[in-house]
Design a protein that fits this description.
By secondary structure, the chain is α/β, with parallel strands linked by helices. The protein has seven helices and ten strands. It has two domains: 1-76 and 149-209, 3-Layer(aba) Sandwich (Rossmann fold); 85-147, no CATH class.
């Protein structure tokens, strides 16, 4: 399968401290790739590199065949940050229709993405009155407007109840099946099993890069939390 993302020997430093240490990885098209690991492991920094908003110290990042951050990628890449990226003083519908007008997608598309993320009943509510999970879904709706080829999601399920998490992961799988490449970060290890491939990050290092089943076999356990701990210990022993 052709690569949607190619990261080679990526090094990032901030404040004089190296935070990503020579990462290399690829992300296949039409797949769900999970960036998993504890907070502070480098997941958000790596995502910022994919979007092209992070200064890179060394190495390279190519997205959909172009250098990350290229003008040609602006309408091909969607990015949802941890913090809601919609206007709090507008309703869900007003936000969606505003961003739709910017992208030239139309009101019908705006209304449909609201339904797709499960916010039909809240479409007339001000974003400021929504719960944290609802705000995250409003941001996701706006990111879907341009039908991005690559969708980058930073901790999209934080604060959501199990039912909403399940619905979002089903949506991610459906989007990937329809051709969208998804990179999604999480520190919740049980979400790893929903991904086609997992990149495990810890302290700016790539601990593992494989399918969930392959990583379970390598760690000798079905428990995903235990899998991560085992792989960390194995890496430490090799080092």
């Amino acid at each position: 399968m052709e690569a949607a993302v190619e990261v080679a020997d990526l090094v990032v430093s901030r404040g004089g401290k190296e935070v990503l240490h020579g990462l290399s990885a690829t992300v296949s098209q039409s797949s769900v790739t999970g960036l998993l690991g504890p907070s502070g492991g480098g997941k958000t920094t790596l995502m910022r590199c994919l979007v092209g908003v992070q200064i890179v110290t060394g190495g390279s990042v190519r997205v959909l065949g172009e250098p990350a951050g290229s003008v040609a990628l602006r309408k091909r890449v969607g990015y949802v940050t941890q913090s809601p990226s919609v206007y709090a003083d507008l309703t869900v519908r007003e936000n969606a229709r505003y961003f739709s007008s910017v992208l030239g997608a139309g009101d019908t598309t705006a209304d449909q993405v609201i339904v797709d993320v499960g916010l039909k009943e809240q479409s007339a509510q001000l974003v400021s009155t929504l719960s944290g999970g609802q705000r995250a879904r409003a941001s996701l709706a706006c990111a879907l407007l341009g039908e991005p080829e690559l969708l980058i999601l930073d901790e999209p399920t934080v604060g959501l109840d199990p039912v909403l998490r399940e619905e979002l992961w089903e949506m991610f799988a459906a989007l990937a099946a329809a051709g969208t490449t998804i990179v999604v970060s999480s520190h919740v290890m049980d979400e790893a099993g929903r991904c086609d491939r997992i990149l495990l990050l810890r302290e700016g290092n790539l601990v593992a890069d494989d399918t969930p089943d392959a990583l379970r076999r390598a760690a000798g356990t079905e428990d995903l939390d235990q899998m991560f701990l085992t792989l960390i210990r194995q890496r430490a022993e090799v080092a």
